[in-house]
Amino acid sequence: MSLSSKVLIISLVLGATLAYSLFEKKQFTEMMNVAEDAPVLKVLPDFKLTNFYTKEEITKESFGSSSAFFVHFWGTWCAPCEAEFPEFLKFAKKFENDNVLFLLLSVNDEDAKMKKFLKRFGELPKNVIVSHDKSGESMNLFGTVKVPETYLFDKNFKNLKKFIGPQSWGLESFAPRVKRLIFGQ
Predict the structure, then answer these.
(1) E strand or H helix that includes residue 58
(2) What is the pTM assigned to this prediction?
(3) Confidence of residue 31 (pLDDT cuts 50, 70, 90)
């Protein structure tokens, strides 16, 4: 192999590595940039839901003692929701000891389909609450038009971030970046 061929191969590898690094950096920067304009939904709206498993009532006040919490809209009928669900559960597990709660809010779904889908994952992380809004009214309340969509609120019910569409919850630096957003570390 000639010297010029080796230089060309090394240049291509370095170029590809640089391009991939820039792509990843852009992805994380976009994920963590909070728009300069205030979000449309500034604070958590009042709501009343039911825990899918325990049948206990869930309200805004149910999250008052947490450091922060996520409200994640999804449905078994939504292919992107199903695809990101395993990563999202692993992501939630990373926050079990941080007093961060996750409300997984299935909308316009059927109980039987939810039970069958959730059974695949066994025991959910202890900081995860599942609820079902059969009517989809909560979507209007939050201003959500399609799923998956996820909101992050602080302990004072202020909207910190809205994640639109499926996310790469399993990326190694996703959780640390979200923790910085919550805890300012």
Answers:
(1) strand 57-59
(2) 0.78
(3) low
